[in-house]
Amino acid sequence: MKILLTGDSGQVGSNILELAKNQHEVKALDIEKFDFSQPEKLKSALEKLVFKPDIFINPAAYTAVDKAETEKELCDNINNKSVAVIAEYCRKNNIFLVHYSTDYVFNGSGNQSFSEDNVKDLQPLNYYGKTKLEGERAIQNAGCNYIILRTSWVYNHIGSNFVLTILKLMSEREELKIVNDQIGSPTYAYDIAEATLKVIEKIDLNATREIYNLCPSEQLSWYDFVLKIKKIAENKGYKFKINSISGIPSYSYPTPAIRPLNSRLDVSKLKRQLGIELPEVDLSLSACIGRAINI
Protein backbone atom coordinates (compact mmCIF):
# COMPACT_ATOMS: atom_id res chain seq x y z
CA MET A 1 0.00 0.00 0.00
CA LYS A 2 0.97 3.62 -0.48
CA ILE A 3 1.28 5.51 2.80
CA LEU A 4 1.60 9.24 3.32
CA LEU A 5 3.19 9.97 6.70
CA THR A 6 3.49 13.12 8.79
CA GLY A 7 5.74 13.66 11.80
CA ASP A 8 8.40 11.22 10.60
CA SER A 9 10.97 12.77 12.95
CA GLY A 10 8.67 12.43 15.98
CA GLN A 11 8.31 9.59 18.44
CA VAL A 12 5.58 7.62 16.67
CA GLY A 13 6.26 8.77 13.12
CA SER A 14 9.93 7.79 13.15
CA ASN A 15 9.03 4.27 14.26
CA ILE A 16 6.29 3.93 11.65
CA LEU A 17 8.72 4.99 8.94
CA GLU A 18 11.28 2.45 10.11
CA LEU A 19 8.80 -0.43 10.37
CA ALA A 20 6.71 0.31 7.29
CA LYS A 21 9.34 1.13 4.69
CA ASN A 22 10.07 -2.52 3.86
CA GLN A 23 6.38 -3.48 3.58
CA HIS A 24 4.80 -0.43 1.98
CA GLU A 25 5.60 2.52 -0.25
CA VAL A 26 5.97 5.33 2.29
CA LYS A 27 6.33 9.03 1.59
CA ALA A 28 7.05 11.38 4.48
CA LEU A 29 5.77 14.94 4.17
CA ASP A 30 8.40 17.67 4.16
CA ILE A 31 7.50 19.78 7.21
CA GLU A 32 8.79 22.94 5.52
CA LYS A 33 6.43 22.54 2.55
CA PHE A 34 3.55 21.10 4.56
CA ASP A 35 3.38 23.48 7.51
CA PHE A 36 0.76 22.44 10.08
CA SER A 37 1.01 25.81 11.77
CA GLN A 38 -0.56 27.36 8.65
CA PRO A 39 -3.67 25.35 7.73
CA GLU A 40 -4.46 27.28 4.53
CA LYS A 41 -0.95 26.76 3.19
CA LEU A 42 -1.17 23.10 4.18
CA LYS A 43 -4.40 22.78 2.21
CA SER A 44 -2.80 24.29 -0.88
CA ALA A 45 0.27 22.06 -0.58
CA LEU A 46 -1.83 18.91 -0.25
CA GLU A 47 -3.87 19.83 -3.33
CA LYS A 48 -0.65 20.00 -5.35
CA LEU A 49 0.69 16.69 -4.04
CA VAL A 50 1.47 14.27 -6.88
CA PHE A 51 1.80 11.20 -4.63
CA LYS A 52 -1.64 9.64 -4.12
CA PRO A 53 -1.69 7.40 -1.06
CA ASP A 54 -4.09 4.69 0.05
CA ILE A 55 -3.53 5.65 3.69
CA PHE A 56 -2.66 8.94 5.36
CA ILE A 57 -1.02 8.36 8.77
CA ASN A 58 -0.89 11.49 10.92
CA PRO A 59 1.19 11.32 14.12
CA ALA A 60 2.13 15.00 13.82
CA ALA A 61 0.88 17.07 16.76
CA TYR A 62 1.59 19.99 19.05
CA THR A 63 2.44 18.20 22.31
CA ALA A 64 3.95 20.92 24.55
CA VAL A 65 1.10 20.67 27.05
CA ASP A 66 2.18 23.56 29.28
CA LYS A 67 3.18 25.91 26.45
CA ALA A 68 -0.21 25.29 24.83
CA GLU A 69 -1.82 27.38 27.56
CA THR A 70 -0.16 30.47 26.06
CA GLU A 71 0.54 29.32 22.47
CA LYS A 72 -3.14 28.65 21.85
CA GLU A 73 -3.34 29.68 18.20
CA LEU A 74 -0.34 27.56 17.24
CA CYS A 75 -1.64 24.56 19.19
CA ASP A 76 -5.11 24.85 17.65
CA ASN A 77 -3.74 25.24 14.14
CA ILE A 78 -1.68 22.05 14.42
CA ASN A 79 -3.99 19.83 16.46
CA ASN A 80 -7.35 20.93 15.12
CA LYS A 81 -7.50 23.15 12.04
CA SER A 82 -4.79 21.33 10.10
CA VAL A 83 -6.34 18.00 11.05
CA ALA A 84 -9.61 19.25 9.55
CA VAL A 85 -7.72 20.10 6.35
CA ILE A 86 -6.22 16.60 6.23
CA ALA A 87 -9.57 14.93 6.89
CA GLU A 88 -11.21 16.89 4.06
CA TYR A 89 -8.31 16.03 1.75
CA CYS A 90 -8.78 12.35 2.61
CA ARG A 91 -12.53 12.54 1.97
CA LYS A 92 -12.11 14.17 -1.43
CA ASN A 93 -9.49 11.67 -2.54
CA ASN A 94 -10.91 8.51 -0.94
CA ILE A 95 -7.87 8.10 1.32
CA PHE A 96 -8.06 6.27 4.64
CA LEU A 97 -6.94 8.40 7.60
CA VAL A 98 -5.08 7.14 10.67
CA HIS A 99 -4.88 9.77 13.39
CA TYR A 100 -3.58 9.76 16.97
CA SER A 101 -5.26 11.31 19.97
CA THR A 102 -4.79 11.24 23.72
CA ASP A 103 -6.20 10.35 27.12
CA TYR A 104 -6.23 14.11 27.77
CA VAL A 105 -9.53 14.42 25.89
CA PHE A 106 -11.15 13.14 29.11
CA ASN A 107 -11.71 15.03 32.37
CA GLY A 108 -9.71 12.64 34.55
CA SER A 109 -12.60 12.04 36.95
CA GLY A 110 -13.09 8.90 39.02
CA ASN A 111 -10.86 5.85 38.99
CA GLN A 112 -12.42 3.76 36.22
CA SER A 113 -10.97 3.29 32.74
CA PHE A 114 -12.42 5.49 30.00
CA SER A 115 -13.93 3.56 27.09
CA GLU A 116 -14.26 4.77 23.52
CA ASP A 117 -18.03 5.18 23.84
CA ASN A 118 -17.74 7.42 26.91
CA VAL A 119 -18.82 10.85 25.70
CA LYS A 120 -20.01 12.37 28.97
CA ASP A 121 -16.45 12.65 30.27
CA LEU A 122 -15.06 14.26 27.11
CA GLN A 123 -14.24 17.43 29.02
CA PRO A 124 -10.52 18.24 28.63
CA LEU A 125 -8.83 19.96 31.56
CA ASN A 126 -6.22 21.79 29.47
CA TYR A 127 -5.97 23.53 26.11
CA TYR A 128 -3.87 20.79 24.53
CA GLY A 129 -6.59 18.24 25.35
CA LYS A 130 -9.25 20.59 24.01
CA THR A 131 -7.52 20.92 20.63
CA LYS A 132 -7.00 17.17 20.37
CA LEU A 133 -10.70 16.60 21.02
CA GLU A 134 -11.63 19.21 18.42
CA GLY A 135 -9.29 17.45 15.99
CA GLU A 136 -11.13 14.18 16.61
CA ARG A 137 -14.46 15.87 15.92
CA ALA A 138 -13.13 17.47 12.74
CA ILE A 139 -12.29 14.01 11.42
CA GLN A 140 -15.68 12.61 12.38
CA ASN A 141 -17.45 15.52 10.70
CA ALA A 142 -15.41 15.38 7.49
CA GLY A 143 -16.97 12.17 6.19
CA CYS A 144 -13.74 10.31 5.44
CA ASN A 145 -12.99 6.74 6.55
CA TYR A 146 -10.68 6.72 9.55
CA ILE A 147 -9.39 5.26 12.77
CA ILE A 148 -8.48 7.47 15.69
CA LEU A 149 -6.03 5.84 18.10
CA ARG A 150 -6.10 7.34 21.58
CA THR A 151 -2.89 6.66 23.41
CA SER A 152 -1.30 7.63 26.72
CA TRP A 153 2.02 8.79 28.19
CA VAL A 154 4.12 8.14 25.09
CA TYR A 155 7.86 7.54 25.40
CA ASN A 156 10.62 6.46 23.01
CA HIS A 157 14.25 5.34 22.81
CA ILE A 158 15.32 8.56 21.05
CA GLY A 159 14.30 12.20 21.19
CA SER A 160 12.91 14.20 24.10
CA ASN A 161 10.61 12.16 26.33
CA PHE A 162 9.95 11.13 29.92
CA VAL A 163 12.06 7.95 30.01
CA LEU A 164 15.23 9.50 28.61
CA THR A 165 14.76 12.57 30.81
CA ILE A 166 14.48 10.42 33.93
CA LEU A 167 17.56 8.40 32.99
CA LYS A 168 19.50 11.65 32.66
CA LEU A 169 18.18 13.09 35.93
CA MET A 170 19.01 9.92 37.86
CA SER A 171 22.60 10.17 36.64
CA GLU A 172 22.85 13.82 37.74
CA ARG A 173 20.85 14.06 40.97
CA GLU A 174 20.79 12.31 44.30
CA GLU A 175 17.08 12.90 44.91
CA LEU A 176 13.94 12.98 42.77
CA LYS A 177 10.35 13.76 43.69
CA ILE A 178 7.79 12.26 41.30
CA VAL A 179 4.02 12.73 41.11
CA ASN A 180 2.25 9.66 42.48
CA ASP A 181 -1.47 10.45 42.11
CA GLN A 182 -1.76 10.61 38.31
CA ILE A 183 -2.57 7.15 36.95
CA GLY A 184 -2.17 6.06 33.35
CA SER A 185 -0.45 3.61 31.00
CA PRO A 186 3.03 4.49 29.73
CA THR A 187 3.12 3.56 26.04
CA TYR A 188 6.21 2.86 23.95
CA ALA A 189 6.11 4.65 20.59
CA TYR A 190 7.57 1.58 18.85
CA ASP A 191 4.61 -0.47 20.08
CA ILE A 192 2.19 2.18 18.81
CA ALA A 193 3.80 2.05 15.37
CA GLU A 194 3.82 -1.74 15.27
CA ALA A 195 0.17 -1.93 16.37
CA THR A 196 -0.83 0.71 13.80
CA LEU A 197 0.50 -1.41 10.95
CA LYS A 198 -1.36 -4.44 12.33
CA VAL A 199 -4.58 -2.44 12.57
CA ILE A 200 -4.51 -1.29 8.94
CA GLU A 201 -4.03 -4.89 7.83
CA LYS A 202 -7.12 -6.04 9.73
CA ILE A 203 -9.72 -3.36 9.05
CA ASP A 204 -11.82 -2.53 6.00
CA LEU A 205 -10.26 0.65 4.63
CA ASN A 206 -13.40 1.34 2.61
CA ALA A 207 -15.83 1.32 5.50
CA THR A 208 -14.15 1.80 8.89
CA ARG A 209 -14.84 4.83 11.07
CA GLU A 210 -13.70 3.93 14.58
CA ILE A 211 -11.92 5.17 17.69
CA TYR A 212 -9.67 2.73 19.55
CA ASN A 213 -7.74 3.14 22.79
CA LEU A 214 -4.15 2.04 22.22
CA CYS A 215 -1.94 1.57 25.27
CA PRO A 216 -0.89 -1.26 27.61
CA SER A 217 -3.52 -2.68 29.93
CA GLU A 218 -1.32 -2.07 33.00
CA GLN A 219 -2.06 1.16 34.87
CA LEU A 220 0.37 2.89 37.22
CA SER A 221 1.52 6.26 38.50
CA TRP A 222 4.44 8.31 37.24
CA TYR A 223 6.22 7.44 40.49
CA ASP A 224 5.73 3.70 39.90
CA PHE A 225 6.93 4.14 36.34
CA VAL A 226 10.14 5.85 37.49
CA LEU A 227 10.86 2.96 39.84
CA LYS A 228 10.48 0.59 36.88
CA ILE A 229 12.83 2.73 34.78
CA LYS A 230 15.46 2.65 37.52
CA LYS A 231 15.22 -1.09 38.11
CA ILE A 232 15.34 -2.06 34.45
CA ALA A 233 18.14 0.38 33.61
CA GLU A 234 20.28 -0.85 36.52
CA ASN A 235 19.75 -4.43 35.37
CA LYS A 236 21.12 -3.36 31.99
CA GLY A 237 24.25 -1.86 33.54
CA TYR A 238 23.29 1.79 34.14
CA LYS A 239 25.04 3.44 37.09
CA PHE A 240 23.16 6.24 38.79
CA LYS A 241 23.90 9.01 41.27
CA ILE A 242 20.34 8.88 42.60
CA ASN A 243 19.75 7.47 46.09
CA SER A 244 16.24 8.72 46.90
CA ILE A 245 13.02 8.70 44.85
CA SER A 246 9.91 9.85 46.65
CA GLY A 247 6.28 10.26 45.60
CA ILE A 248 4.44 13.57 45.85
CA PRO A 249 0.85 14.69 45.09
CA SER A 250 0.12 16.76 41.99
CA TYR A 251 -0.57 19.91 44.03
CA SER A 252 3.05 19.85 45.20
CA TYR A 253 4.21 20.09 41.57
CA PRO A 254 2.06 22.82 39.99
CA THR A 255 2.20 23.22 36.21
CA PRO A 256 0.61 25.79 33.84
CA ALA A 257 -1.66 23.09 32.39
CA ILE A 258 -3.82 20.93 34.65
CA ARG A 259 -3.11 17.21 34.27
CA PRO A 260 -5.87 14.63 34.78
CA LEU A 261 -5.45 12.38 37.81
CA ASN A 262 -7.16 9.54 35.96
CA SER A 263 -5.70 8.76 32.53
CA ARG A 264 -6.81 5.12 32.53
CA LEU A 265 -8.01 3.89 29.13
CA ASP A 266 -10.08 0.77 28.55
CA VAL A 267 -8.28 -1.20 25.82
CA SER A 268 -10.71 -4.13 25.60
CA LYS A 269 -12.33 -2.94 22.35
CA LEU A 270 -9.09 -3.20 20.36
CA LYS A 271 -8.42 -6.70 21.68
CA ARG A 272 -12.02 -7.84 21.23
CA GLN A 273 -12.53 -6.51 17.70
CA LEU A 274 -9.05 -6.82 16.17
CA GLY A 275 -7.16 -9.17 18.50
CA ILE A 276 -4.49 -6.55 19.16
CA GLU A 277 -2.97 -5.73 22.54
CA LEU A 278 0.27 -4.04 23.50
CA PRO A 279 3.04 -5.76 25.49
CA GLU A 280 3.32 -5.36 29.26
CA VAL A 281 5.01 -2.16 30.42
CA ASP A 282 8.10 -3.98 31.73
CA LEU A 283 8.73 -5.69 28.38
CA SER A 284 8.33 -2.51 26.36
CA LEU A 285 10.36 -0.40 28.77
CA SER A 286 13.15 -2.97 28.73
CA ALA A 287 13.19 -2.92 24.91
CA CYS A 288 13.19 0.88 24.88
CA ILE A 289 16.09 1.23 27.31
CA GLY A 290 18.00 -1.50 25.47
CA ARG A 291 17.66 0.37 22.18
CA ALA A 292 18.59 3.66 23.85
CA ILE A 293 21.81 2.11 25.17
CA ASN A 294 22.80 0.89 21.71
CA ILE A 295 22.25 4.21 19.92
Write out key terms for the chains shown:
globular, alpha/beta, Rossmann fold, two-stranded parallel ribbon, 295 residues, 6-stranded parallel sheet, 16% strand
Q: Could you describe the 3D structure shown?
A:
With 295 residues, the protein is of the alpha/beta class. It has a domain of 205 residues: Rossmann fold (3-Layer(aba) Sandwich), CATH 3.40.50. 40% of the residues lie in helices and 16% in strands. It contains nine helices and twelve strands. The chain has a six-stranded parallel beta sheet with strand order 2-1-3-4-5-10, with helices on both faces. Helix 3 links the parallel strand 3 and strand 4. Helix 2 runs parallel beside helix 3 and helix 7 packs across helix 9. It is globular. The model has no long low-confidence stretch (mean pLDDT 95).
How would the blueprint of this fold be written?
Elements: E1 2-5, H1 11-20, E2 25-28, H2 39-47, E3 55-58, H3 72-93, E4 96-102, H4 127-142, E5 146-151, E6 154-155, H5 162-172, E7 175-179, E8 183-184, E9 187-188, H6 189-202, E10 209-213, E11 220-221, H7 222-235, E12 244-248, H8 268-274, H9 281-294
Parallel strand pairs: 1-2, 1-3, 3-4, 4-5, 5-10, 6-9, 7-12
Antiparallel strand pairs: 8-11
